[in-house]
């Protein structure tokens, strides 16, 4: 049997589910561009409408593949966005503040979760999503923590919640920060430090001014750059905790994080063509939207609505804590 024949035999069962997920992702991208709404939210909701195709039938294997392998590949390709020279513009004080905010936000999740009878997985998932980069961080963290019967449902809920809150923040935060008397540079830093998803950070930042948009984008990229650090810390803790915390031996660096770090190193060492960076970034986003669509197909609306108000309360608390801490740090310490 030739390599091509083996490849066809391996890929044929996956094709229907992958094509379904990709088609839903394309429809979500069209709707998002047409209506100016979050693409990932559209992908999630459209995917859930096709949940019946995941139960039994030819799409199941491909949907599983898209929700796992394509998800990890999309996260790995995110590294193309990060260049160390850009991150250096934050400065030591700004970097220290952002690292502290990330740690405190994740810690808030662990403090809030027991109050609403939620487990550590949900605390880590939501805390990481709010602290780092929204939906992308939620997907990456879900890929390394031990899965249980609630993991996919909680991941989808987290994506939906942080995307919705980011959209609200994109409108409200610039007005709030201006009302508090922050300068344009400070507003840009706060927007980048507190809004969850990259697209909404860019939208909010440039709605203030070009200089605010630039500092907001750089600040957000610093938070994205912390994603592999947080993932490695999670993996180390799970390895130390032993078999009871995980499912088998967890690699110190999953392959998609190796890809992430390799792209960061490549982009920081060589000046890559802008067109290439844009194409890889677009491909990464396409993979993540496809993975979200696949996760939506795997999840029923009934299962998602059964999570209860405690789930939303935790995400809102984490979001408000991040907002208050970041605003207070700039207001009283004048770091930026």
From TrEMBL:
Kindly state which keywords UniProt assigns to this record, in alphabetical order. Answer: Cell membrane, Membrane, Transmembrane, Transmembrane helix
Instruction: Kindly indicate whether the keyword Ligase belongs to this entry.
Output: no
Name the membrane topology term.
Multi-pass membrane protein
Compartments, as annotated in UniProt? Cell membrane
Q: Which GO terms describe its cellular component?
A: plasma membrane
Stretches that traverse the bilayer: 35-53, 65-84, 90-115, 122-145, 157-177, 221-240, 252-270, 282-301, 313-334
Write down the InterPro entries for this protein, in alphabetical order.
UPF0324_pro
Q: What PANTHER family does this protein's entry cite? A: INNER MEMBRANE PROTEIN YEIH-RELATED, UPF0324 INNER MEMBRANE PROTEIN YEIH
Name the protein family.
Belongs to the UPF0324 family.
Name used for this protein in its record: Putative sulfate exporter family transporter
- Give the species: Roseinatronobacter bogoriensis subsp. barguzinensis
């Amino acid at each position: 049997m030739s390599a091509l024949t083996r490849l066809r035999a391996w890929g044929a069962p996956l094709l229907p589910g992958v094509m379904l997920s990709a088609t839903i992702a394309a429809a979500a991208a069209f709707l998002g561009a047409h209506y100016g709404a979050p693409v990932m939210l559209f992908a999630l909701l459209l995917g859930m409408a096709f949940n019946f195709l995941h139960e039994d039938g030819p799409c199941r294997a491909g949907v599983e593949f898209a929700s796992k392998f394509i998800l990890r590949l999309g996260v790995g390709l995110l590294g193309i966005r990060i260049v160390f020279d850009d991150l250096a513009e934050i400065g030591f004080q700004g970097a220290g503040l952002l690292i502290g905010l990330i740690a405190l936000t994740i810690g808030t999740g662990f403090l809030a979760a027991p109050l609403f009878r939620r487990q550590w997985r949900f605390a880590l998932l939501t805390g990481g999503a709010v602290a780092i980069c929204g939906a992308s961080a939620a997907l990456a963290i879900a890929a390394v923590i031990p899965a249980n019967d609630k993991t996919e449902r909680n991941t989808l809920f987290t994506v939906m919640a942080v995307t919705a809150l980011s959209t609200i923040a994109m409108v409200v935060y610039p007005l709030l920060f201006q009302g508090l008397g922050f300068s344009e540079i400070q507003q840009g830093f706060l927007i980048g430090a507190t809004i969850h998803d990259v697209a909404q950070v860019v939208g909010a930042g440039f709605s203030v001014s070009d200089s605010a948009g630039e500092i907001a984008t750089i600040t957000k990229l610093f938070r994205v750059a912390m994603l592999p650090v947080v993932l490695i810390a999670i993996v180390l803790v799970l390895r130390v905790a032993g078999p009871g915390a995980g499912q088998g031996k967890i690699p110190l660096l999953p392959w998609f994080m190796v890809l992430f770090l390799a792209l960061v190193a490549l982009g920081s060492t060589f000046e890559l063509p802008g067109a290439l960076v844009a194409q890889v970034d677009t491909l990464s986003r396409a993979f993540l939207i496809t993975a979200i669509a696949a996760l939506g197909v795997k999840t029923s609306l009934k299962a998602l609505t059964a999570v209860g108000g405690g789930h939303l309360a935790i995400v809102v608390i984490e979001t408000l804590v991040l907002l208050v801490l970041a605003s207070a740090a700039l207001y009283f310490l004048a770091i930026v």
